[in-house]
Amino acid sequence: MSGNLGDLLEAARRRRFVGRERELTCFDDALHGRGTCRVLFVHGEGGIGKTTLLHEFAARARVAGRVPVHLDGRDIDAAPPGVAAAIRLALGDREGFPAGAVLLIDGYEQLSPVDGWLRDTLLPTLSADAVVVLAGRDPPSAPWRTDPGWGDLTVVHPLRPLGPAEGDDLLACAGVSPQVRPHLLALARGHPLTMALLADLAAAGRVPGSLADAPDLISVLLESFVREVPGEAHLTGLATCAVAWLTTEDLLRRLVGADAPAVWRWLARQPFITSGPHGLSIHDLVRDVLHAEFERRAPESFRRTRWTVYIEAVARLRAATGEDRQVHAQQLLFMLRSSPLAGTLAGLRAQGSTSVVTARPDEHEQVCAVIERFEGPASADLARAWLTVQPRQLSVVRSGGHVAGLALNLLCPSGSGLEERDPIVRAVLAHVAREAPARPGELVDISRFLSGADEHQRDRYALLAGPVSSIVEWLTHPLAWSFIITVDPGHWGPFFDYMAFARLVEVDFDGRRHVAYGIDWRRVPVDTWFDLMHERGRTGATGPPPAALLRPPPLDRARFGAAVRAALPTLHRPDRLAASPLLGTALAATASGPDVGRLRAVIEDGVARLGAEPRGDRLRAVLDRTYLRAAPSQEAAAQILDLPLSTYRRHLAKALDHLTDLLWTVEIGDVRLDDRP
After folding, report:
1. In what residue span(s) does the Orc1-like AAA ATPase domain sit (predicted)?
2. Which of 118, 290, 520, 598 is most buried by a 10 A CB count?
3. Cis peptide before 208 (omega within 30 of 0)
């Protein structure tokens, strides 16, 4: 055997090198003088393959008869003398670069203090056929692009994750069996270091079900991704990025207060974070790693972060109008990242085709044609009729100028005879009336039509249009029930089990069986439901909601009013207030379950709000002196308020009616006291 160990090492590296064709072609062109490029700037997050690529460049340089000079910025004093000393050491104490040398600098972000010196002083002294490769986590500074000279000589290559075929080749070279590769590819998301670590685990007979099952691997990846976190606020910023689809400075302000601008700037500089028009987004693998680590190390703190992200997205969705609501709905949908649909939605996001919008009138016939093709002419006729009644309730996804996915969410009662004419809607509303009727002011949401243009209800665009449009409806209307209609229960059934939606109504129509899955939001509020979905994504549980999460059956309007009047005298007696039927209503609901303190606060807030109504000061004052700062008797209260007893009692009756009306709007979800600035 000839050669040395270094030769064997290089040969082994080259055998396992895959991908990076664009970068290799650019380097080869520079190496052989094809074109003007003499400087390649390669950047990307830790573990993305920068060092591996530099080793391949060095090997190609040697094959071409060039002398590679390989430096690592992490081992160099970031000052001109330190760089010069490192170069001399790499050249064996020889002064000056040989002609045609190839200078390869890894960890270039560590040399940012001498970036200008390297560019303006050192590199211009190299021979005209020299090639320079700078590899670091950060993109190049502006002069590399804006200087007319360097801009012509420099090509910038942001390193991306490997594609599926390249990842499969890498795992195959590492000896991973074909049966295991798809699972490891899904976990690694194209990240070379992660694939290498997973391949080592697989070789030892340990194939983790998720990254969270391999804490040692997570520690290595974290060290690779995050060099140093300046402080606790920045750590919270990373946790926020791990949860949120898009992180804004406003969202950070909710979590870290006055530190938000500094944290935002730090996050935006990280190589695994992309800054877009709506906020910051993090690389999917880094998100997976951070998510697993935060859940392992600080589960309660991480849960609070997730809840804050949820509250912010809900508040922004409710405050938004038009298409802006869809962005916030996608934020909420993304938080269910472990749901059965997460993979499909992630694939669509990668293509950029994720905009769900209100359909234009000229698209209605396209939509009805899709419905007729898959569900029949009678269904299409009903869709046309509903679109004349509720045209703004049709959401679509567009692709290539055509409707690719659609969802029509009806709100009932609609005041239309179509509720009787449409047999599916009629059957759903009959179930509601029989089991738990909608109360005054409440609506029933029915996702009546759901389809994609190519594969009907199994179409990936249907899987996008349905959930996004439904989230908007669920969070912007006072809903009693929601129903989703499917003609493909075999496919959708498991997903509805995950969602805790029950199979409630079945109707044969137009040659197909239509199945309605539904949920009573009075029993499982939307906020509770989102928390349940996250937990199910983690545990894999399905089926009906746990009994501990269910509120009591909803009070009708008369019983609710009686309960409000009975609760007011007990506001300062928590033991007695805890026995109020109102404890099972929205008035007492918190993230951790019903709370007597919350019930009292909401009632007191309602009393305060009466004062903002026209001539409401007197009503607020009467309730205040009767119940909040109660006088010994009604006579004493009247005297304090300087009112005749009869006038006081008239005002009290009116105030109780107004307060009950206000609290009822809270109960049905039409008004949210927490929304007050």
Report:
1. 16-69
2. 290
3. no
Q: Which amino acid is at 261?
A: P
Q: Give residue 675's pLDDT.
A: 42
Element (H, E) at 586: none
DSSP 8-state symbol, 674: G
606 Cβ contact partners less than 8 Å away, ≥ 6 residues apart: 659, 662, 663, 666, 673
CA separation, residue 570 to residues 229, 306, 575, 577, 596 (Å): 51, 35, 9, 5, 11
**What φ, ψ does residue 483 adopt, rounded to 5°?**
-130, 145
Of 135-139, 219-223, 284-288, the least confident: 219-223
Amino acid at 667: E
The CB density around residue 216, as the number of other CB atoms within 10 Å, is: 9
What is d(CA 520, CA 435) in angstroms, rounded to the nearest whole number?
Answer: 10
Q: Which of 133, 151, 132, 149 is nearest to 141 (CA)?
A: 151
**Exposure string over 12-47, b if 16+ CB within 10 A, otherwise e:** eeeeebbbbeebeebbeebbeeeeebbbbbbbbbbb
In 3-state terms the chain splits into helix, strand, coil percentages (rounded to 5) of: 55, 15, 30
| 489-547 residue pLDDT tens | 999 998 999 999 999 999 999 999 999 999 999 999 998 898 888 888 777 788 999 99
Q: Could you give the CA distance from residue 427 to residue 507 in angstroms, rounded to a whole number?
A: 8
Report the DSSP beta bridge partners of residue 516.
Answer: 485, 505
**How confident is the model over 372-393, as pLDDT tens digits?**
999 999 999 999 999 999 999 9
Integer Cα distance of 279 and 268 in angstroms: 9
Q: How many residues does the chain have?
A: 677
Token pair for 261: 């601008």
Which pairs count as long-range contacts for 294-303, CB under 8 Å and 24+ apart, including other chains?
294/239, 294/242, 295/212, 295/538, 296/212, 296/215, 296/218, 301/239, 302/239, 302/243
| Closest-CA residue to 495 (of 527, 533, 529) | 533
Nearest to 445 by CA among 380, 393, 508: 393
390 C-beta neighbours (distance < 10 Å), count: 17
pTM reported for the whole predicted model: 0.69
Tokens for 146, please give them: 């804006």
